[in-house]
């Protein structure tokens, strides 16, 4: 490996909800792809990396809205540049537009398809936000100077995704999400007949890593006891929308699921814990059933961000968005 002659410029990255709670070192290792781990730790400990203009430690937990300063980094030929959140994306990212549910000068709401990550990282070169930035490059007709994810959806979850077109809108909307002032309802197709009396799930969740250490493990979530110090209170409301019969003859339930807390994998873990995993869920589902249904054409995870309510960041008008259900043929 030979070093390139050019150096990067200073990068200022604003933390969005997808990176909220992540350790500083893990965040930098993700955005500075190809930069040796030892170098990442050196620039943090030397004070060259700043969070909100102040020094930070390797284990500093990042919050939404934090601004991380990354100094110029000399790259090797096989290293990728820092993934600035204001860039249009790497040259190899294909431009792509997505179905628009709402758009004005402040925000954009799209209907994200299943199987598409919201951003690059963790083995994914690019996602929705990088593709949108390429499609709407600043200076071109229809271009945008600012596009940032307000929140995130799992890669295999479809439905409503909000993107801010101004920093003021980003800060306002993320504050609404953090204060639980938004209304988020999902559609979930689950195994079996859901008990009609089970309408509220109030069980704490704990996030942990498997198949690796703190830096490279796979993220998982589990239900823990209510007195577990690592448990985070998680509340899910469930309503039966329709009962189905699956192609293999087994019963299934289409549920309207409203989350009062936004924990990682909350819906997937809560429903599976009660014996009704989401169809097609490769982490918490019924793997034999998923395999059988895939042969019948049901190859996705049946979780869809269906309804979202929030206040417009500029006008304060109440907005309710709906994404058509993709499960009508389930």
Short description:
The protein is α+β, with helices and mostly antiparallel strands and 330 residues long.
Architecture of the largest domain, CATH level 2?
Answer: 2-Layer Sandwich
Extended strand count: 18
Helical residue percent band: 10-25%
- Report the portion of residues in β strands: 25-35%
Oligomeric composition of the shown chains = single chain
Instruction: Return the average pLDDT rounded to an integer.
Output: 86
Structural class: alpha+beta
H/E element order:
EEHHEEEEEEHEEHEEEEEEHHEE
Assign the CATH topology of the largest domain: Pseudouridine synthase
**Largest sheet entry:** 10 strands, mixed
Number of helices: 6
How many discrete structural domains?
3
Which of globular, elongated, flat, extended, rod-shaped describes the shape?
globular
- List low-confidence stretches: 1-7, 75-81, 83-89
State the CATH class of the largest domain: Alpha Beta
| Rg, nearest Å | 21 Å
CATH superfamily of the largest domain: Pseudouridine synthase
N→C terminal distance = 52 Å
């Amino acid at each position: 490996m030979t070093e390139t002659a050019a150096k990067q410029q200073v990068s200022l990255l604003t933390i969005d909800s997808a990176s909220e709670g992540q350790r500083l070192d893990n965040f930098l290792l993700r955005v500075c792809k190809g930069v040796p781990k030892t170098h990442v730790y050196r620039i943090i400990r030397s004070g060259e990396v700043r969070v909100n203009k102040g020094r930070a430690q390797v284990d500093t937990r990042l919050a939404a809205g934090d601004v991380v300063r990354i100094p110029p980094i000399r790259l090797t030929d096989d290293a990728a540049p820092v993934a600035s959140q204001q860039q249009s994306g790497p040259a190899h990212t294909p431009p792509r537009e997505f179905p628009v549910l709402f758009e004005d000068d402040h925000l954009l709401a799209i209907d994200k398809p299943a199987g598409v990550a919201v951003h690059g990282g963790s083995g994914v070169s690019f996602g929705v936000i990088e593709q949108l930035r390429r499609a709407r490059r600043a200076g071109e007709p229809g271009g945008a100077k600012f596009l940032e994810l307000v929140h995130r959806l799992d890669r295999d979850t479809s439905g409503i995704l909000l993107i801010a077109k101004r920093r003021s809108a980003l800060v306002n909307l993320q504050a609404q999400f953090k204060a639980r002032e938004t209304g988020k309802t999902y559609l979930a197709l689950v195994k079996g007949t859901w008990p009609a009396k089970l309408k509220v799930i109030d069980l704490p969740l704990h996030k942990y890593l498997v198949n690796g250490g703190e830096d490279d493990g796979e993220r998982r979530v589990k239900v823990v006891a209510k007195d577990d110090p690592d448990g985070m209170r998680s509340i899910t409301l469930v309503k039966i929308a329709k009962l189905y019969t699956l192609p293999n003859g087994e019963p299934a339930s289409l549920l309207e699921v409203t989350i009062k807390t936004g924990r990682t994998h909350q819906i997937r873990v809560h429903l599976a814990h009660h014996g009704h995993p989401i169809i097609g869920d490769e982490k918490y589902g019924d793997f034999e059933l998923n395999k059988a249904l895939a042969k019948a054409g049901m190859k996705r995870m049946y979780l869809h961000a269906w309804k979202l309510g929030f206040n417009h960041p500029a006008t304060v008008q109440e907005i309710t968005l709906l994404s058509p259900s993709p499960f009508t043929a389930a």
